[in-house]
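Two records follow; treat each independently.
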Amino acid sequence: MNAPAIGSVSWFEIGSDKPEEVKKFYSELFGWQFKLNTDLEGVDYHAAITPGSPGPSGGIFDHAGRFEDYAVFYVLVEDIPATLEKAKALGAEITMDPVVDASGVSFARLRDANGHHFGVYSMPAAMA
């Protein structure tokens, strides 16, 4: 399998304070499997592995009631700071500053000029 193309939607995240119920629903509906991801200390995150996929393509985040439930897509980018600057120039709002997990994946969240929530991420060269 080739790495996703820059600019493609290649990750999703579902945030819930009931992650076990969410995992059960998607597992039964689509056959998704889940694996605990411990790359971000103190974060309960379950990588989602969809049928036919060689690895995770999304995840379930236990937000423990800190947010409203959500589903969001992530777009792969080469340069998060440059993408955030361009997005701001186009009217976007940064809702979560960039974070880097233990594997070196960087990600941030935004709202577009019309208020739609989405994320961007980049991978270290060794993973790309």
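The next record belongs to a different protein.
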Amino acid sequence: MDFWRRYKIGHHFSLVITLVIAMFVLVGCQATDHLPMVSIEQSKDPSLTNPLPMENQNVLRVGISSVLSPRETLENYQSLAEYLQKKIGRPVVLVQRQSYKEINDLVRDNGVDIAFICSGAYVSGKQENLMLLAVPEVNGKSTYQSYIIVSSNSKFQSFQDLKGQVFGFTDPISFSGTIAPTYMVTLLNSRPTDFFKRVVYTYSHDNSIKAVLDNVVSAAGIDSLVYQFSVAKDPSLATKIRIIAESPEVGSPPVVVNKNIDTHLKAALLEALLQMDNDPVGKKALKALLYDRFVLPTDVAYEPIQSMVNANSAIDQKK
């Protein structure tokens, strides 16, 4: 009897507590009816084809840096996705981010299985488990350089002429778009903030070209491969812009993986890349990117970038 008495008292007490809580909830709702509804969901960016790293290990996640603007980058890599899906035997998801660092972070954290990044991003991230897998070859070379471009009708003839002008950088860790132009300033014993009137980040090389053509900036640093790609699509571009300075050649934008990648997957990816030029679907993908083939990389080709980064940091600390 004592047990049932205690059970009934406890049951009634729980019911009373539930009713009290419900009353507070109803009052709270009435008190906030006049407040506006605010959504904390981030707006969808069409460039983010896969906003979060996928957990499905049957999917091959391919990270691509926005060397070109997001939409054009995705279009150019669609054929590559089809080829990799055929060779690896997994559905392929292209994962794109606005900044190079975000792609580096995905490789480091296994958010993607493989990534196509820029050379500056590799140098910046190689201490964070990034490993070279392959590098594209264009016109028989696996190197490229930074071009400093101006409008063809501008008065500027050399890099020194750009003092006091507005300059277009691409991504903060881009070799051709930021590191190399900054190094050119370093060689003049100055810093971008002192040498230029203002710097503007465009976050893609085609945006930098457009910024020069639209007189948003007086000059910009761009990828020589992107320049060739853009002129191939629109030959008139060669008459609209001029190249007034060039950097030394360095290793081309590489393909990287996490150092801890599964060895079988790594071998399959490497084989797929090195055999692209012998496969009809692979040839189509190479043509879309204006690449001849993929070849084995060498880390030595990226050492000049590290030297530039060190020199830029040294003068920055002095000032």
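Discussion point: The longest strand covers residues 130-137. How would you locate this feature using only the token line?
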